[in-house]
Design goal:
The protein has helices spanning 2-26, 94-99, 173-180, 195-203, and strands spanning 30-33, 37-39, 51-59, 65-76, 84-92, 109-111, 115-117, 122-131, 145-155, 162-171, 185-187. It is α+β, with helices and mostly antiparallel strands. Strands 1, 3, 4, 5, 6, 7, 8, 9 and 10 form a nine-stranded antiparallel β-sheet that branches.
Length: 226
Amino acid sequence: MEFVALGVSIVALAVAAFAALKMRKLEFCPEAVGGDVILPREGRPGARVRLLLPLHFTNAGHAGGVIEWVALRVTPEAQADHPVLLSPVAEVDMQRFIHARRCLSEECIEPFVGFALDARRSLSKFILFDVAERSRAAPFAIGTGRHYFELFVKASNAQAPKLERSFVHVLEQKHLDDYGDDLAVYLIDYQVTLPSARRALAESELMPRATPMFRPPRGAATSSAP
């Protein structure tokens, strides 16, 4: 009888797990993929530092929903106790961004708003981040060294934001020199595949094609400038 009871319990557990998996597939199941960071040209001296992220959103579920907002937390290794929270301030039209010589202009940006993500669909967004609560926060500054990035997403199927991605980039002095010379800087995570976003960037000849300056050890992200 004990073996029969054990068998029944195993079958019941398997049925419950299958039902839970099937129910999840019927729900809104969003996911955000990212890892690349762009420091775009601001076009004027002394402008505040903002970050442009190519992000790819997918929905594996059979129900649609809304991506309400995203946020980015950046922690410099040299200032581990002073993380900086950045919020989305604009969505960037990459074609116009390229035509503007990789400079942020009023013609290539529009305010960021939440967006719908239909069932079994995916889309790419190019989102510009700036310091949250700028009136009270210190200006965001970049320096050499390792920086840790955390991407949070708040979707309509959750009551709280979810940490979707964590990645690391190493900024070198050349990156800062290029940015100071009003050049766009690219920090590329070679461990992440962004087929749609990277294809759009490559077609615009935005992503650098040269061999990266620094190759990461296995399992680590790195940075590169064109």
